[in-house]
Specification:
The protein has one domain. It has 248 residues and is of the alpha+beta class. Helix 1 runs parallel beside helix 5 and helix 2 packs across helix 5. It contains six helices and ten strands; from the N terminus they run ααββββαβαββααβββ.
């Protein structure tokens, strides 16, 4: 049963798993994960074979000049093996733990993929076009964004929308280099749960582009079709004042 305090329940789930990681879950955590699983089956998206998806990697390779010819080295995109994550030495991510089998992070647009690697002006970015060779069953976390309840008694459907909005917002929110790796624990646990239930991946919003992010649990579920090199020409940081300064 999903209760109308779904947003608060997510916070109660996130706090202990961030502190304790993947040790034995208490009854409250198990109840929340059961609710997530209940709602996930209603938010399935099928990605067809041949769908164009993008992955970016910051940097490039340099081709040395020919012997005896005074030419500068030529910038080239990374080779295929560099455009996919290593099989057994995954770094910490939203949907995978460090050292576990690698997952494949992709985006629905090239611009979003480039934004996700946080490039600086004049940086080289290698961008690969990937296509799945079979249909993929994806948990779509983009349908809603919470909190959406107003405190009044809500229908079961509204309660389900809110709990799924909590999951979507958790995947969308980026973990920065200054955060602890434990901050990934909530989404990693949910990803592991969905993988066991035979989902092929998760789709969630990006805060760094207008497209969507897709993480595939199997790094080989999409094939690299081509790779191009781009150079970032401009980076902007529009902002607005949050509140008045506290010090003068």
């Amino acid at each position: 049963m999903i209760h109308s305090d779904s947003w608060w329940r997510f916070r109660q789930f996130r706090a202990p798993v961030t502190r304790r990681g993947r040790r034995m879950h208490d009854r409250q955590t198990k109840s929340f994960l059961a609710a997530v699983l209940q709602v996930a089956g209603k938010h399935v998206r099928v990605i067809r074979a041949g769908t164009r998806l993008w992955r970016a990697q910051l940097g490039n390779e340099w081709v040395p000049p020919l012997d005896g010819i005074e030419l500068d080295s030529e910038a080239r995109p990374f080779r295929e093996e560099r455009m996919k994550p290593p099989r057994k030495s995954a770094t910490e991510g939203r949907a995978n733990r460090k050292g576990t089998p690698s997952v494949l992070y992709l985006a629905t647009t090239r611009k979003t993929a480039i934004g996700e690697v946080r490039p600086w002006k004049e940086a080289y970015v290698s961008v690969g076009l990937f296509e799945p060779d079979r249909e993929l069953r994806i948990a779509d976390c983009t349908a809603t964004s919470g909190p959406i309840l107003d405190g009044s008694e809500a229908s079961v459907e509204k309660q389900e929308e809110e709990i799924w909005a909590c999951v979507g917002d958790a995947f969308t929110h980026p973990v920065t280099a200054n955060d602890s790796s434990a901050d990934y624990a909530p989404t990693q646990i949910i990803a592991e749960l969905l993988k066991v239930q035979r989902f092929d991946g998760i789709q969630y919003r990006s805060l760094l582009g207008t497209g969507l992010n897709i993480v595939l649990f199997d790094r080989d579920a999409a094939k690299l079709k081509m790779c191009q090199l781009f150079r970032v020409k401009n980076v902007t940081f529009p902002s607005c004042k949050h509140r008045d300064p506290e010090y003068y």
